[in-house]
Every structure is written in C-alpha cells, then in structure tokens.
Specification:
about 30% strand; about 190 residues; 11 strands; 5 helices
Amino acid sequence: MSLDLDRDGACRVTGFAETILPALISEFAAYPVGQAGVRLSGVPGLQILLGAGSVMGGEVEARAGRPMQPVRAVLFDKRADRNWALGWHQDRTIAERARHDVPGYGPWSIKQGIWHVEPPFALIGAMMTVRMAQSRQAICLAEVGDVWFYRTPILHASDPSDGRATGRRVLQVDYCGQGLPAPLEWLGIG
C-alpha cells in the first residue's frame, strides 16, 4: 500500500532528489563521513538547493499548502565502522541562533555547538520534514534519490546500517511556515 501524506503522515516520492543529488554530494564533500548526525547551518548552497524557489522548496510548499522555509538540516552517515540504532521517537526540538528563555519553550540543549529547544507541540505539528536518500536501504524502502515527506511529529525509528561499504547516508531537512516569538530566531540552513 502506498502511503499518503494527509492520511498517513508520510509519503515517498521515488527519485525526486535525483536531479539535485550530485550538487548535494558536492556540498557535503568537506564534511567528515560516518558521523551520527552533523547539524548543518551557514551552508548557502543548501539554501539554494532546498529553500524557497527551489524544486524541493516548491514541492514542500505544495504539499503543505502554504509557504515554508528550511529551518534545520541534519546529515546522517552510517558506516560499518560508525553505526547506530535509534529507537522509536518523535523529533521534538528546533535549532535556534541563540538561547532566549520564552514561556512554553524548553528545555534547552546544545548539540554540536548549536542551541536546540523544545517548542510548543503545535509548532512541531505545523512543520514538515523531508529525508533524501543518497544510499539504498530496503528496510525504509528508499532508493538513491528518493525523498520521504513526513509530518515532523510522526513516530519513527532507525535501524543500524546493514554494514555495506557504502553505508547509508541521508539528509533530513525540517521546514516550517511559521515565525517564532521574539527574540527567538530560526537557525536556518543558509
């Protein structure tokens, strides 16, 4: 059965990222391989490839039914020598430029030097996440270039890579069409 974003909270679009995959791979050439989750910000090329006016940004906006902007990107790169599993969970934090205590936002944490905070759940519910597969993986039914669109609060898990030399590389990008209460500010990707 094919999943539907509105009905099931997730859908797969076969080959959707194939045309931008070479440019994405080029953007990531300077990043170390085999990392558990590299938080990406200040990468202008990502903003061009994934932001407003891009094919991906347009598709996200069409599926969301409103303007959206990329607010966080994480590169996962599982390899035989750097592998992990992640149990069932929901993504519940957002990346911020700086810590500002605002009612309803908390607790705060720092991941790779970037401030993260748990916002009110309504904000998470208004977000959409895309996952672009650079590597094939049968369990998640993603082929190279496939894109999964899903509602950010969807319950999901990740098994270890199967140990192939190529590993499993996935880019996750969170989008949102809402601003944040001042003085909070999205970290963004560009």
